[in-house]
Amino acid sequence: MNDEDTGVSASESAPDASARLVRRLSERGDTVACAESLTAGLVAAAIADTPGASLVLRGGIIAYAADLKVALLGVPAELIARVGTVDPEVAAAMAARVRESLSATWGLATTGVAGPGPAEGKPAGTIHIAVAGPRGTQVTSLALHGSRTQIRSGTVRHILALASAALGPE
To answer: N or C: which end of the chain has fewer CB within 10 A?
Structure first.
C-alpha cells in the first residue's frame, strides 16, 4: 500500500497530521484514545504535542506484549493464538476496545513489525492500523520500508491520516 491509499500526503508531517486531526475532533466535540504496540506511545505523544490536545485526547494504552493486548485491551486470547499479534483483526480489536475502555468517540490502534528483522514470520514494515468510531472500524494494512525509526514514524503519520479520513469530509 502506498501513501495515497491512506490519504497521507508525502509532504504532511506527523505534527501537521496531528494538528489537522485535533482541529477536526475539537470542531466536532469528539475524543480519541490510542492502543499502541509497535509505536509504543508515539501516536498519543504526537497528538499531545498539538495545542488543544487536552480537549480531545482521553489517553492511551501501550500493549507491546501479546499478554497485555489480552489483559489490558481485551483482545481475545484465541485470536492471538490463531493469527499472532501482527494481524488486521488484532488491530481492529485493539481500536474497538481502547475506544470502549477509555470512553472515547474514536479509538486508534497500531500493531506490526518495526524491525530490523522479521517477527512472527512477517517482514519488517508489516503494519496494521485501525480506527474504531461511531460508524464501525476501519483497518488498513501497510508495507512500509526503511529503518526501525522510519517505519514507526511512518505508522504514526498513517494512523493520524486514517483517523482524519474516518471523520469524513472536511
So the answer is: C
